[in-house]
Known about the structure:
By secondary structure, this protein is of the alpha+beta class. It has 11 helices and 22 strands. The chain has helices at 12-18, 42-67, 71-76, 84-92, 125-142, 155-162, 181-196, 233-236, 242-247, 258-261, 266-273; strands spanning 2-5, 25-26, 29-30, 36-40, 99-105, 113-118, 172-175, 201-203, 210-212, 215-217, 226-229, 251-253, 283-286, 297-301, 311-313, 319-321, 331-335, 341-342, 345-354, 357-366, 376-378, 380-382. It is globular and about 60 Å long.
Amino acid sequence: MERIALPERPDWRERAADLGFEFHTFDGEPYWDESACYRFSLRQIEEDLETPTEELHQMALSLVSKIVVSEELLTRLDIPEYCWPALEASWRRQDPHLYGRLDLAYDGRGPAKLLELNYDTPTSLYESGFFQWIWLEDQVCRGGLPTGVDQFNSLQEKLHSAFAVYGNGRPLHFTCVGENLEDRGNLDYLIDIALQTGCDARFVDLEDIGEVRGQLVDLSNEPIHEIFKLYPWEFMVREPFGQTLLTSQTRFIEPAWKMILSNKGVLPLLWQAFPDHPNLLPAFFDEQPTSPMEPGWVRKPLYSREGANIELVDHDGACLLEPGPYDDSGYVRQAFHPLPCFAGSYTLVGSWVVGNEAAGIGIREDATLITKDSSRFLPHIILD
Length: 384
């Protein structure tokens, strides 16, 4: 694994505009960064990332049947009690799930270490599945990369196949906070894939979803039979209409049981179930959230996103704290495992699953050891 500097495509911003990539820059700072790429060997991809991703995914799934019937564990995960029957029913029906992203620390040598699961509303889907593949094709055509170079990226193909089980001739709605450019970009990408499979895919802004006699409806008062939501379950169930969501006849993507696997409390439960697994880090529930941390731990809220409210204490006792709004739930502590540093930036590998199969990776860089929403996305290649 190495970071390789490459000339940018001179017209990449025009290409991005033509292809609907409107969030390639945030507040004047680059999010998409093609001044470099990451090179992996085929062995690294297959043995160190693809195989462990599928194994970790199955390990996480194996916990759900135990958690949905345990009041103790559901309480420890801070899942509201009125959600419990819906979670268990969703799991027992085996409501299908679409995708997820595992965030891994990997330097090309040792085993990849799981930092967290993003299994409810993972983003960076468009840039992982589509735009970095366009970059690869363009670079090969321009001579910037050799013919025969590859990429670990079957996201779009697998998503296309996955959408075949949805819709069933009825409208398939998609929702997010419409004014969020990144969320809308990821959602439009999924809508486009769903349309290609023949789904009657329709967008409805989250704030425009209504309720009639306990059933969710769109702006035309049509029942929402099935909906993909790019909005966290833990937010939705705490909205005024939260209980209606759980009792309506609407089928959700992701299903209600995914609320469990998007919770950081899964990390200590994984460590309890699979102690000393080479791809796991020791993790424990933080019973005393205000107690000082021993060097070499990372403290994370059960519910947090984009690095918010994470406190990191490295092996030398240096502390890094990222503020944020997620301070109203419990916490977990995970053993500190530093992200590798390339060219002065800390590198995180996001490894995707679609259904139950590994489907590709996306690379993000940050100026600090905590990967935040200000991180940059870089493409990758496979070249032995």
